[in-house]
């Protein structure tokens, strides 16, 4: 007889692992399946660890605000150090167009309850020593945003999920989803079949392939991004800096200094590079180094330790796709978190746990409505 679970989650990544934790803590019998050897080994381990509630989409602001509460209270609640630090985020403006769009967004962000303000160049200089003042018009500062270690966080969620009774099966690729009478019945992997009431697709950049097995099309595509880490230097900056200027090869770029003094940064390739590419390129390093020096000229002698590449699970509007779908009972999407799956993961997991418990708050219902599969995808996230 094949085993039966309340919930089977496909993917033990940034989203699936905290979702398993919240569902197991709520008393459900949970199984997590992952094709890789351990938790957090998909895109999760490629994330640089930025966590912000500073978005343009109110649903993302809400979910990430919840995530920040979870990340920032983790050590006090569970004891383990996930390297959380509330250093803030600063979106800087070196031209009028960026200044205007950031100031327009401040209205939405403040209305959604974010602690965020516009800072003068002199005020930014106090939290980012050595920032290039030439042409700097100011920028936003949201001090409650921060960063944490994606590997340590995922391991912490995994540990608490397992403690609450969730089972994890690794090296088990999902190959079929069995449906009867518009209802999910079971999931088949290379090793076995598992019955369930709810099936959560948290398969990240590979979510569209999984969803195809259930006959549901989801517009999620792997979008390749690279990152770098430098040698450590004495602490000189607090917030993550985001520079939205378009430059040759990239449409924006962001970096922060972690607790050990390393700078960790990323850029959005321009044009985007679609596909599940994971090998570093020779173009990336000279491009991002130019961008780093443009914002902090004194970094010109800093040595880079390594670069790596992974994928964002990208959607057409830059926002995730969450919740139930029409015509297939028991199927739940937790997909398309784009470049923000690490920061969205705990907030998403908490909401989806409330969904299956049938106790969603009014705000959570509004989030799931805004992020449903059958939306128009016309309302683009401005701070991707
Ligand atoms: C360079 C870079 C920097 C980034 N920086 C940040 C950042 O600062 N902050 C942030 O929030 N996000 C960041 N991201 C984005 C973040 O990494 C992703 O949004 C996030 O990891 C997606 O989470 P996920 O759980 O959906 O996918 P994943 O973490 O990839 O998990 C999906 C899991 O599903 C499994 N799976 C897939 N198919 C199957 C199958 N058939 N059977 C079984 N298992 C399967 C995979 O093995 C994988 O483990 C960054 C990404 C990159 C590449």
Tell me what you see in this structure.
It is a single chain. Helices cover 29% and strands 27% of the residues. It has 384 residues and is an alpha/beta fold. The chain folds into two domains: 4-62 and 150-219 and 317-370, 3-Layer(bba) Sandwich (FAD/NAD(P)-binding domain), CATH 3.50.50; 89-143 and 222-314, 2-Layer Sandwich (D-Amino Acid Oxidase, Chain A, domain 2), CATH 3.30.9.10. The strands form three sheets. Strands 1, 2, 8, 9, 10, 11, 17 and 18 form an eight-stranded mixed beta sheet that branches. An eight-stranded mixed beta sheet has the order 5-6-4-13-14-15-12-16, sandwiched between helices. Strand 1 (4-10), helix 1 and strand 2 form a beta-alpha-beta unit. Helix 2 (58-78) crosses helix 8 (341-357). The longest helix is centred in the first third of the chain and has 21 residues, at 58-78. The chain is globular, with a radius of gyration of 21 Å. It starts with a strand and ends in a 14-residue tail after the last helix. Residues 10-16, 33-36, 41-44, 46-50, 173-174, 202-206, 210, 225, 227, 266, 310-313, 337, 339-343 line the site of flavin-adenine dinucleotide.
Protein topology:
Elements: E1 4-10, H1 16-25, E2 30-33, E3 50-51, H2 58-78, E4 89-93, H3 96-111, E5 117-119, H4 121-127, E6 138-141, E7 146-147, H5 150-163, E8 167-169, E9 174-180, E10 183-189, E11 193-201, H6 207-213, E12 221-232, E13 240-243, E14 250-257, E15 262-269, H7 284-295, E16 304-314, E17 321-324, E18 331-335, H8 341-357, H9 362-370
Parallel strand pairs: 1-2, 1-11, 2-8, 4-13, 11-18
Antiparallel strand pairs: 3-7, 4-6, 5-6, 9-10, 10-11, 12-15, 12-16, 13-14, 14-15, 17-18
Bound molecules: flavin-adenine dinucleotide.
């Amino acid at each position: 007889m094949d085993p039966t679970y309340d919930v089977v989650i496909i993917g033990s990544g940034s989203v699936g692992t905290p979702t398993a934790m919240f569902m197991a803590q709520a008393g459900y019998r949970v199984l997590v399946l992952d094709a890789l050897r351990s938790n957090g080994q998909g895109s999760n381990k490629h994330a640089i660890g930025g966590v912000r509630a500073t978005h343009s989409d109110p649903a993302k602001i809400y979910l990430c605000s919840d995530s920040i509460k979870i990340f920032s209270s983790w050590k006090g609640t569970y004891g383990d150090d996930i390297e959380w630090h509330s250093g803030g985020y600063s979106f800087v403006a070196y031209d009028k167009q960026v200044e205007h769009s950031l100031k327009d967004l401040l209205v939405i962000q403040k209305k959604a309850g974010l602690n965020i303000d516009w800072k003068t160049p002199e005020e930014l200089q106090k939290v980012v020593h050595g920032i290039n003042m030439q042409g700097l018009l100011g920028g936003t500062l949201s001090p409650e945003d921060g960063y944490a270690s994606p590997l340590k966080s995922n391991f912490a969620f995994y540990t608490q999920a397992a403690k609450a009774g969730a089972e994890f099966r690794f090296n088990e690729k999902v190959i079929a989803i069995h449906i009867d009478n518009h209802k999910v019945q079971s999931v088949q992997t290379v090793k076995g079949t598992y019955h369930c009431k709810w099936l959560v697709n948290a398969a990240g950049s590979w979510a569209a392939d999984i969803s195809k097995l259930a006959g549901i099309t989801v517009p999620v595509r792997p979008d390749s991004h690279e990152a770098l880490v430098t040698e450590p230097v004495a602490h000189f900056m607090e917030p993550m800096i985001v520079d939205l200027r378009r430059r040759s090869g990239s449409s924006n770029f962001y970096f922060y200094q972690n607790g050990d003094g390393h700078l960790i940064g990323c850029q959005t390739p321009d044009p985007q590079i679609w596909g599940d590419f994971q090998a570093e390129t020779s173009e990336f390093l000279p491009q991002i180094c130019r961008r780093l020096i443009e914002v902090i000229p004194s970094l010109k002698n800093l040595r880079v330790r390594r670069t790596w590449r992974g994928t964002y699970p990208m959607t057409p509007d830059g926002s995730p796709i969450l919740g139930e779908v029409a015509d297939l009972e028991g199927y739940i999407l937790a997909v398309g978190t784009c470049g923000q799956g690490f920061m969205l993961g705990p907030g998403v997991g908490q909401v989806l746990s409330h969904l299956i418990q049938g106790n969603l708050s009014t705000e959570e219902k509004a989030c799931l409505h805004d992020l449903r599969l059958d939306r128009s995808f016309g309302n683009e996230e401005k701070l991707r």
